[in-house]
Design brief:
The protein is α/β, with parallel strands linked by helices. The chain has 6 helices and 8 strands. 32% of the residues lie in helices and 19% in strands. The radius of gyration is 15 Å and the shape is globular. It holds the Pfam family 2-thiour_desulf. InterPro entries: 2-thiour_desulf.
Length: 162
C-alpha cells in the first residue's frame, strides 16, 4: 500500500491562509497523487478553530517551532495577541491526522509559522526570513513524518520513488 501524504490545504487551492487566499501548487505529481487517493489535506490553523481571514502571526523573537513546542517561545499575531495555544492545538491536530491516516510524508507551505519547514519569519513582521520550522512542521518531524516544503516537491517525488 502506498503511504499517504499530508498536504497544506492552501497548496490544494483552499482559501484558508491568514489573508483569505490560497496558494495552489500546480504540479503533475499533485494530480497523480490525488487520483491515487494518497493526499490528506489539512489547514492546521483552521483545524484549531482559527478564522479566515485572521491577523498575520509569527513565532516571536526569532524562535522556532521546536522552541514553541518546548514551551520556550510563543506565537503572536501582528495585533499582539498571543495565539500560541491555537498553534499548539493545530500541530497536535495535524500529527493526529497524519498518524491516523498513515501519512509518512508531509508537503507543507513554506514561511508559515505553522507549516514552514525551510524558512519562517523572524517574528518582527518585517518580512525577514530565517531558517527554521513552524510549529506543525516541527511536531510532524518529531512524530517521524518526513516534511517537505512546497519548494521541495521534486525531492518528495524522488523520496517516494525510493
Amino acid at each position: 500500500m502506498q503511504s499517504k501524504i499530508l498536504v497544506s490545504a492552501c497548496l490544494m487551492g483552499h482559501a484558508v491562509r491568514y489573508d483569505g487566499r490560497a496558494k495552489p501548487l500546480l504540479h503533475p505529481a499533485i494530480e497523480r497523487w490525488r487520483a491515487e487517493g494518497r493526499l490528506v489535506t489539512i489547514c492546521p490553523e483552521m483545524s484549531a478553530g482559527m478564522t479566515v481571514p485572521r491577523p498575520p502571526a509569527e513565532i516571536a523573537e526569532a524562535a522556532t517551532g521546536e522552541e514553541v513546542l518546548a514551551g520556550k517561545a510563543r506565537v503572536a499575531e501582528l495585533t499582539g495577541a498571543d495565539v500560541t495555544e491555537e498553534f499548539l492545538q493545530a500541530a497536535k491536530n495535524a500529527v493526529t491526522l497524519a498518524l491516523q491516516a498513515g501519512c509518512h510524508y508531509a508537503l507543507l507551505i513554506d514561511g508559515s509559522p505553522s507549516c514552514g519547514s525551510g524558512f519562517i519569519y523572524d517574528g518582527t513582521f518585517s518580512g525577514r526570513k530565517q531558517t527554521g520550522n513552524g510549529v506543525t512542521a516541527a511536531a510532524l518531524k518529531a512524530a517521524g513524518v518526513e516534511v517537505f516544503s512546497d519548494h521541495e516537491i521534486e525531492q518528495l517525488i524522488d523520496r517516494i520513488a525510493e
